[in-house]
Amino acid sequence: MDVATEIALKELTKVRAPRATATKSRAPTPTPAMKSVLMKNAGHRCQERGCEAEAYLQVDHVIPVARGGRTEMRNLRPLCAAHNRRKG
Ligand SMILES: [Zn+2]
Fold first, then answer.
1. Distance 78 CA to ligand 1 centre (A)
2. Which residues, chain by chain, have CB under 5 Å from ion ligand 1?
3. Could you tell me the distance, in angstroms and rounded to a whole number, from the CA of residue 29 to the centre of ligand 1?
4. CATH number of the domain to which 31 belongs
């Protein structure tokens, strides 16, 4: 095949690369609706054992996103700011 065709094919492959299809479900930030259900289920308390903090709760990924954890209900739990920060 000639060079022009080769370049055209490469361009096509580039466009098809699965880059723009990064799914919403892998977004690291839970939606407000997810947060509200999580907080409710947890009784609006930090889920760290022995901690009863009710203020400054943040949603924590049980398995960090960096290690393949997903932003879905079973991988999320509310933690107080102190516990969430300590875990990273
Ligand atoms: Zn805590």
1. 9
2. 46, 48, 51, 53, 80, 83
3. 20
4. 1.10.30.50
CA 34, distance to chain mean position in Å, is 12
> What are the residue ranges in the chain where pLDDT is below 50?
22, 88
Block residue for tokens 């709760």:
57
Rounded to two decimals, the pTM is 0.66
In a domain, 2, yes or no: no
pLDDT value at residue 28: 83
What are the residues facing 61 on neighbouring strands?
76
In the reported structure, the alpha carbon of residue 44 is separated from the centroid of ligand 1 by a whole-number distance in angstroms of 11
The domain total for the chain is 1
Give the DSSP H or E segment for 76: strand 76-80
